Amino acid sequence: MFTPILAITLLALIFGLMLGFASIYLKVEDNPIIEQIDKLLPQTQCGQCNFAGCRPYAKAIANGEVDINRCPPGGEDTIQALANLLEVEVKPLDKECGIEGSKTLAVIDEERCIGCTLCIQACPVDAIIGAAKQMHTVVTNECTGCELCVNPCPVDCIDMVETKAKTNSWNWSNLSHIDLQSNEQS
Fold first, then answer.
1. Is residue 6 one of the residues assigned to a domain?
2. CATH number of the domain residue 118 falls in
3. Has residue 3 been placed in a domain?
4. What's the distance, Cα to Cα, between the start and end of the chain in Å?
């Protein structure tokens, strides 16, 4: 009885060491340009570019599979920055992906919220907090304004409030001066 347990433990240790060494010595380095492209994208994870998020879109750009003009939330500023980084021609925003709009922030009318959690499930950056059958709220420092939470809401209690941020100064902590209550009533 002791011998099989010892044999299995020894095999597990050997295979574990082999996997550990393989993960270190056979590690495939990611293309560094992907990181640079990803940092220029607005990180809304909205999918308007027809990719699951900004990182897959950055990989596709780096691999030459798509153009740099498929990001409506980033708009012309992001297209210009990508063109400068990749040393390619600036192209106008692809209208099939959407149109460039002002930067927005989701705001939940907490009196109308029924706590269905559909907005929480739709948010790609976990900017909405709350529990089932309880009111939800948006963590303003995390919200990217992707609007993916608006359509799933069955009681239409989510509004998108315009902000004054530009992509080259995109920092939600700088927006703490926004009076969300006055914007909701407008």
1. no
2. 3.30.70.20
3. no
4. 77
The pLDDT of residue 13 is above 70: yes
Strands 128-129 and 137-138, by their bridges, are antiparallel
In a domain, 17, yes or no: no
Residue 147 forms part of a structural domain: yes
Helix segments in 87-160, DSSP class H: 118-122
178 falls in which pLDDT band (50, 70, 90)? very low
Cβ burial, residue 127 (10 Å; 0-12/13-18/19+): buried
pLDDT at 39 over 50: yes
pLDDT for 82-134, tens place per residue?
999 999 999 998 888 888 877 788 999 988 999 999 999 999 888 999 888 88
Q: Which two tokens stand for residue 90?
A: 């600036």
Task: Indicate the number of domains in the chain.
Answer: 2
Structural domain range at position 78: 32-86
CA dist 81 to 48, 70, 124, 142, 170, Å?
19, 13, 24, 23, 14
Rounded (10°) angle between helices 32-40 and 75-86:
160
Residues 113 and 163 occupy one common structural domain: yes
Q: Do residue 81 and residue 109 come from a single domain?
A: no
